[in-house]
Amino acid sequence: MSFSLRRGLIATLTATLVATGTVPAAGAASAAADPNSIYTPPSPLPAGQNGDVLKSAPSTYTNAKATRILYLSRDNKDKQVPVSGTVLVPNAPWNGPGERPIVAYAPFTFGMGPQCAPSKTLAGEGGDLISGFQGGFVNALLGAGFAVAQTDYLGPWVEGGGEHPYVMRLAEAHTVLDVVRAAQRLPESGLPKGGPVGIAGYSEGGSAAASAAELAGTYAPELDVKGVYAGAPPADKAALAKSLDGGMYVGFLGYALIGINQAYPEARLMDLANPAGADLFLQARQTCTLDSVFRFMFKQTSTLTKSGQPVASFLNQPPFDKIVAENRIGTSKPPMPVMVEHSPMDDVIPAAIGKQMAKDWCGKGANVQWKDLTSFSPFLSHALGMMTASGDATAWLQGVFKGQAGNGNCGRI
Predict the structure, then answer these.
(1) Which residue, of 324, 359, 393, is where some domain finishes?
(2) Where would one find the signal peptide in this protein (predicted)?
(3) pLDDT tens digit string along 322-337?
(4) Which residues, 6+ apart, have CB-to-CB distance to 221 below 8 Å?
């Protein structure tokens, strides 16, 4: 990639972030207490229930009481693990009907390095320019009066956490649902123990939110989940392996392979890699989103395997075909209303993937609202779509919490 093109992309993103108010000024200052202690779990890990809070430390965030937390959840193999996140409660009183809702915010792709965790970047630490979009989504939810429970998912930001199981269905669903439990159990939050719950996410977060919608009824049946918003969800990993390969965002495919390797070590994914592929894995593990895009864009995965075959060619073969099937979203009916939104011009995750997930849910009798996400242009449409998605998600959840979810529009998808 030429220096001039890279500089131009950075300038475009910077101008957009500044113009829309999603730069760190919209977010936070440093944590009032030592925040780093949150990321060191007790050893041995104490027995407890999913969602139990292991540690908490106050942080600061504009117009909200912010608390960083370490809580218990489950990984892809159902092993109990510590997960970090943030609970944010607006300073303004709740003026809506009933008790103040808690919305689980599932972050979009933020990277693999310890410095990339959203609980850090929301507090003005680490991250990159893209991190500002996380704050923009959180601000929209807080502005509606919702409390926000944000998960970091599993990853190396927690000591001993291993690699981030990027877009792995079970692990991400568990961490999203358990952060709501943690928010309800956090004494200083003042939040209702059995109040209304929403879930929202875009991109990776859309996948995590959609996965949580499918698992909520069995994994966390006590949560009163009123509605789930899933924006631009990467619901079919096999389709993404083809669409991302050789493109601008091939680094995200690298993240997904790291996620498979973490969640399914028995698959021995690294046995397929040549020295260049192994080196890419080592590099990608240290990157946040923007660095990953610029460092790996336009790389062909056929140059990274011992056989010279692209990664997509392996995903329909054992053991990877089973892994792909286990992580496909759309196979279970969400018991609550769901909104699925995707830009027809999405330049990262083809809109057909999100639409197929919505159709699959409709076929199972779910209450699905589909909407074409408004895009500013085909260029950077996935990233810039986040700005529209945050307002759409917030507005839809406001209606949901008022009992106005509607009956969906399955017949017109």
Answers:
(1) 324
(2) 1-28
(3) 999 999 999 999 999 9
(4) none
